[in-house]
Amino acid sequence: MTKTFKYRLEQQTAYKHSGGTMREVSVTDFPVSTAMTGVSLRLAPGTLRELHWHTNASEWGYVVSGSCRTTVLHPDGTTYIDNFNSGDVWYFPKGYGHSIQGIGTEECHIIQIMNNGTFTEKHTFSITDFIAQTPVELVAQNLGISIAEAQQLPTQESYFASGPVPDDSTLDATARSTTGLTSMHRYPLMAQDPKRVPGGGTERVASARLFPISTNMTGAIIEIQPGALREMHWHPNTDEWQYYISGTARMAVFLGKGELIEDQFEAGDVGYVPEGAGHYIYNNGTEVCRILVGFNNGQHETIDLTKWISSTPDDVLATNLEINREQVSQLPQRHWFIAPSPLQ
User: Fold this and answer.
1) What mean pLDDT do residues 13-26 have?
2) Catalytic one among 59, 157, 223, 231?
3) Residue of 43, 31, 42 whose CA lies nearest to 2
4) For this structure, is 98 an active site residue?
């Protein structure tokens, strides 16, 4: 059976409850995705992805649309509360307790990337599940409430819960005494002035250099203009997980020994590239293709074909490609990153 590096995440059946929906793709469903798992999470205003933690993966999140509020508990007891809007990124280390709640007036759509291909919701521990499985008298003792009060708590995992929207018109909104663009767990990715290739596209990146807490994951938003090509390249130290936000593209993975596998991608699809495998993304549509890209390394590395070609001696290229020096002079003399459409 031919390998596939494409998975139609948004076409899968969602888990739905109390105004929240969740779709997940792990190595179980997508065998090539050995190092990362992805989740598409949607929260109605007021819907809470309950207090929980992950036992075998860190979480890198990107807000596609809408707004949400997160809480994060560190082992030293410090709590961080942040509001996120479209284009913002978060990072929660493995094992840190956190929650996510939709705020504002519209649904919040979030893509979460976990740095473990075997991660599933089975590796998520929820506070209501922990309480429900513990003898009620011990829950009462632990929380300092009566047994009767403890018996009113959930008797099974909630996963999603619905409550009031903690906006600025209520006392539930989070107080903040100063203005700020970033916080320990929040990075405004779309506020970046991006790497830009006129006629080709843009790239915005949040690595550990700019987002220090994200020690083992990097994320990027790449926008490719119609007819443009995110050039042939590979990553020596990381796998790549892709979520297609909008537009269409052909993405191919080169596995060596004459094997290259290409698929057509559209909004809601997931792509995956193993560490070291060559790949490219060609926008064969009529609108900008926007892609969320996740890497399982806080300092990801990339080698682009034109970077290599433009820095290699002419005689080496002539010998290797079996062409003359005049033909070599027609090859790229600089690094392209994204090659604009030849029609421009």
Assistant:
1) 96
2) 59
3) 31
4) yes
Residue 335 falls in the annotated catalytic set: no
Burial-class residue 146 by CB neighbours within 10 Å (0-12, 13-18, 19+). exposed
Return the percentage of the chain with pLDDT > 70, whole number: 99
Whether residue 2 has pLDDT greater than 80: no
CB neighbours of residue 93 within 10 Å:
19
Amino acid at 174: T
Annotated active-site residue in 121, 262, 266, 275: 121
Which of 23, 42, 50, 52 does the annotation list as catalytic? 52
Could you say which of 23, 24, 42, 54 is catalytic? 54
pTM of the predicted structure, to 2 decimals:
0.96
Catalytic residue among 23, 42, 69, 98: 98
* The pLDDT of residue 1: 59
Sheet holding 6-7, edge to edge: 6-7, 270-273, 240-246, 289-295, 218-224, 201-206, 195-197
Task: Tell me the mean pLDDT in the region 160-189.
Answer: 90
Give the integer Cα–Cα distance in Å for 83 and 177.
14
Indicate whether 122 pLDDT > 80: no
Backbone φ and ψ for 86, nearest 5 degrees, come out as -50, 130
54 is an active site residue: yes
